[in-house]
Amino acid sequence: MSYTELSVWTRGIIMDKEGRDIVNSISTSARKEGKHAQSMENYVDNPDRTNCPTRKYCRVSDTVLENELTYENDHPNIVVLVEGTMVKGWDYMRGMPPGGTLVINTHYTPEYMMRFVPGADRLAQLVCVDAAKLADHKWLYYRLGQLGLDRLSTEGAAERSKAIAPDIAAPLIAAVVKTTGIVKMETIQPMIANQKAFELALHELHILPLNPVAA
Amino acid sequence: MATAMETIKKKTVRINGCVASAQAAKYADVDVIAAYPIRPYTATMMALAQMVANGELDAEYIVADSEHSQLSIAHGASSSGARVFTGSSGVGVQFAYELYSPISGSRMPVQMMIADRTLDPPGDFGSEHTDALSTRDMGWLMGWSCDAQEAFDNHLMAFRIGEDRRVLLPQMVCQDGFFVSHITTDVELPDPGQVKEFLPPYKHPYPLDPRRPVSHGPQIMPEQGPPLQLERARAMEGCMPVIEEIHEEFARIFGRRYDAWLEEYKTDDAEIVFFLQGGHAVTARFAINHMREKGMKVGMVRLRTIRPYPTERVCETLSRFKVVGVIETNMGLGSVSSGGSLYAEAAAALYESPKRPLIMSFMAGMGGEAIVLKEFYWMAQKMIDAQKRGKIEKRTHWVGFEE
Q1: What domain range includes position A197?
Q2: pLDDT for A80-93, tens place per residue?
């Protein structure tokens, strides 16, 4: 019997869709594989404001989810930081059981990022992926004017494009799926819009193995 | 010619309660939408705005300057014969209070979606039913859904019930904020043809029309008051068979059958039952399954419609058990039980029963806190203790604040 919690930390409005795409695509894939899965926003983080930290959750289980109505992931096995500087400032590791995975969007190495991670002894691996570069991203902060047209707060979520992961979410999803196997690669890959960034990421992950948990 | 089954184009989508409500309004082909934002129901209006903008729904979408204006717009639009959809949450529901009685008094079948939010202070997004429940005696049909599918279905049924010539009453279709409004589940959207069959175009008998002048809501003399109030009371009381009939027809057309008044879960041999309404029923069912594995005779009765209140059904049903634990998720400060308002009504309904169960009130899920499994176990234990003792220890327990 397996039960996995995935928590995604992202920044309000400008990277809100990225966070949502990660949890939504993974939960959809898990359901396609016959598992029980849900994805949701952190209810009190919303309505989000530009740049404010907001959390997105995904739960995947072999059995029916009895905690479907609880607000937060109390024990995340996998944590994703959609924006690298979030590594400082919040205890995103809170509640993580031993054997966890942390995925960060950054051009730094995991060896460098390690120093900022609180409670890193619970990690089985630290994964860094330069998602912005792989997705050939004109960095988000400089595009606020354009983004304002496409991106309202989560409660509105009025994107012009219904594409899943056209942007920096694609390499992050690749990183999560390849390093944790939370869902099968062949289930999730077809639904990703930015195939190029997804493929690139599979070969350009920087993985630092840490404390494995004996099975 | 294809058979009816072949032409039905249903689809299953993964949506939350807010979007399910918006979808229901779209399927009902509403004419006027009166919006004003407040969490958590906002997402419903956001979704409807997109539908109107995309040309999927042909409706007047009016953004009001407050909830009071929102309901005034709804009242006016309904008077002109339009099918009207509006909604609110928490303090927004309260700010529109003046309009509830006039709308039901002029017998306008406005539909209002409520995604519950705790009343201030302090600001809290979480779900408590107090917002809508505080308007429960204003002449609106009212009931709670426990998931997105039921919310969708309840909206369609409420339009049909409220617009029935034998009823003509406004409807509050309520769902818990977050527990229903923001939790995504699979929802089956019907074929538009099914909805057409179920919900005919709305036609008010006396709309405001310069070609056929009528007066709505004029000033009256006091002696004209009682007959009008009696009419409204009769409409509320008399709609009970209509509600049952329409639930039956819904089951025939859509294949989903709901008891109009109560859902019973594992009550056949139950000695103690939770009595509640809304989304917490989802967790209650899991808790009951686990307790049953340990041999505890526990079940759940969920109130689906609170206005009109199914007094006889509640009395008959709850009289079958030894102990009833009312889970309030609402505030009735200084009320009969010093707890919530569900207790008072359940106890009143049970008064004439020759076989009254013990009844107690649990203040749980206050402020919109999730009621977790172990809290259901705790409540069940209190009920078992009362059963052994043959009397309750006290009327109201605040869950999480007692040993």
Answers
A1: 3-209
A2: 999 999 999 899 99
